[in-house]
Amino acid sequence: MLETVNLSKTYKDKKAVDEIEIYLDKGESVGLLGPNGAGKSTTISIISSLLKPTSGDVRLNGKSTIKDPSEIRKVLGVVPQEIALYEELSAYENLKFFGRIYKVRKDQLEDRIQEVLGMVGLKDRQKELVKTFSGGMKRRVNIAAALLHQPEILILDEPTVGIDPQSRNHILETVKKLNEEHGTTILYTSHYMEEVEQLCNRVYIMDHGKVVASGSKAELLSILSSEDTIQVHLSKTTDALIEKIKNMEHVRQVDETSDGIRIITKKGSSILSDLVHAAEKEKSQIVHYQVEVPSLEDVFLHLTGKTLRD
Amino acid sequence: MGSFFRKDLLVFWRDRKEILLALFLPIIIILVLNTAYSGLFNSDSESVNIDVALVQEDNEALGLERFADAVNGLEMSSIEKETLLEQAAQITPVRLIDDFFSNPELKKWINIKELKEEEATELVETGELDAIIKIPEGFTYEVLSHLMLDEQSEVALTIQAEEQSTEVSVLRDVTQNFIDTINLQFALGGASDAEAKELELPQGGTEVVEGVETFSMTQYFTIGMSTLFALFISQTIAIKTVTEKRERVFNRILLTNSNPIHYLTGKMLATFCLTWLQLVIIFTSMQFILDVFTEKPLVFWIGLLAVITAFALTVAGLSALFTILTLYLHDSNAVSGLTSLIVMMFGFLGGSFFPIQGFPELLRKIGEWTPNGLVQTTLIKLIQFNDLQDLMIPIIFLIGMFIVCLTIGIAFFPKRGRI
């Protein structure tokens, strides 16, 4: 349905997006993950026709959208990271304005406004000015505004940043419903791995403007199938001890975390006795030891060397 | 287009601070300026006091004698010669000037005293006198020859002043009025002799503004301040684009496939309506509070409304230009600074702060073609003459400015979100 072909964008000497190839099939829900500065927002802006690529193409049903973006704009709903609303207007007034300029038929507009307000759970607050809303409520209206013209594809750029858990759940439920019940194709970017895991069938992981991995959750997890992740909590962690662990046989990576240290080892290898021995030598004790089932977060860390919130 | 228009009006209406600035601030400023400067600048006749010296360099008796010699040298009957000399004796120009300034009504606010040139010049330089009216040597002979024998005249009545001021301007107008009246009387008198051509009394000296009525400073402040604040509406509406851009609302608008012209037209229509309302409210308020346009005929109010409408269109065009500027400049402070600078420059050159009549020639010419300057000049003319025909060309120019701004706006509107 929608694909990018060798999509690149260069600002002065910096490549923000580097020959990206992603595709979205009809009715799919696809996640786009990457740390800050990975090029996600630039990619979204190009796909949305708001930014011209330096090279490459964006195709909708095989037809380029670069020269004439009007076709893609008709089927696209974009929820930007920012609250793209008029704060001085009420939720209803905002939706009415955007509905009109989206050319929603006059006789359908009122019903459509009530429908999207219902979707985001703000029917009873529609007459209030947006500037009086909480961050979460604003984000919900932000989504509602992108749904007015019943888009076939919905692009959401980190729609849950900085909001309360209630609004977050509401947004996730809405997106899930849109995808599953209305068949809307979703492209979802987020800092929250669990959101992507919950919502998306496939995931693209971006770093430094490139797609470093892609596939379904199972496919991505298989990247770590040759490794085990061990979470260890020590009574005392010293640089010397970490250095010793790094030099142990089968250990591939050691990272300090807030709970202790995370050790990635060759799958099936046991380092427990070596670890106890090393800790004793450094006058430390193992408080907690757990072999973790790898998550997408681990895959992300493995591929980019960063956590999602870096 | 209607959606954009309604949205822009609503956004403006919800911003109470902007409404206060657009409507109440100009009214307050006009009232303050009117109170503060009424004593200094008021050119209403009852409060103007002009001190002027009359420097008499002409010898009237000698002039009459020369005129008699000239008449006697002509080939005409002695009866004709006698008639001419009798008429000349009755209308000696110097006496006419003396009589005119001795008029009790005029003496209430023009204090004239006869002085030697050196003394008068000194007093003008020290500021004790506003101006000098100089009757040059040979004036009587030249004027009589010009008026009665149709000879070319080389001398002229001059008004000298140290600097341009309202007093000097009023004095010029009064003197010009007097000369026009004399000319008219002669022209009418000559009509019975079958040759009814208008004669001109040589006046000369510094430039004289045509027309006989002056405008009051209250009227000046009302026009100056209201047009200045109207220009600020174009900035206010355009600056909203900064917010639309910063908060990505503009991108959302682009994604709706909306025609750029609709977006711009919405801004312009909103600016037009707000400017028009603002001007009407300010002028109406000032009329009620200060009775700024006393006893003006209906034709004046029609003209005023026509000029306001044309000016509101120009301001709307300006808002399109400022909107484009806002879309091209990425720094919101730069946008705000630049548009403020443009408006203030218009304000200065267009005479919103000081009357452009006091500007040097070049600045005055430039100022007269700024939108607010053009409106100011046009409305002052309307106050003086109440003639709708005087409005035609300025209104065409104001509409022309609007069309130019609109064309530039459409040509440069970005097709994508970022440039």
Explain this structure.
- The complex is a heterodimer of chains A (310) and B (419).
- Chain A is built from eleven helices and 15 strands.
- With 310 residues, chain A is of the alpha/beta class.
- Chain A folds into two domains: 2-221, P-loop containing nucleotide triphosphate hydrolases (Rossmann fold, 3-Layer(aba) Sandwich), CATH 3.40.50.300; 225-304, 2-Layer Sandwich (Alpha-Beta Plaits), CATH 3.30.70.
- Chain A starts with a strand and ends in a 6-residue tail after the last helix.
- Chain B has 419 residues and is mainly alpha-helical.
- Chain B has two domains: 2-42 and 215-412, no CATH class; 50-191, no CATH class.
- Chain B is built from 17 helices and four strands.
- Chain B has a four-stranded mixed sheet with strand order 2-1-3-4, with helices on both faces.
- In chain B, helix 2 (16-41) packs across helix 12, helix 3 (60-72) runs antiparallel to helix 4 and helix 13 (298-328) packs parallel to helix 17.
- The longest helix of chain B has 31 residues, at 260-290.
- Classes of the chains: A alpha/beta (310), B mainly alpha (419).
- Chains A and B meet through helix 2 and helix 3 of A and helix 1 and helix 11 of B.
- Chain A: Belongs to the ABC transporter superfamily. Drug exporter-1 (DrugE1) (TC 3.A.1.105) family.
- Chain A: Keywords: ATP-binding, Nucleotide-binding, Transport.
- Chain A: This is ABC-2 type transport system ATP-binding protein.
- Chain A: Pfam families: ABC_tran, DrrA1-3_C.
- Chain A: It is found in: Cell membrane.
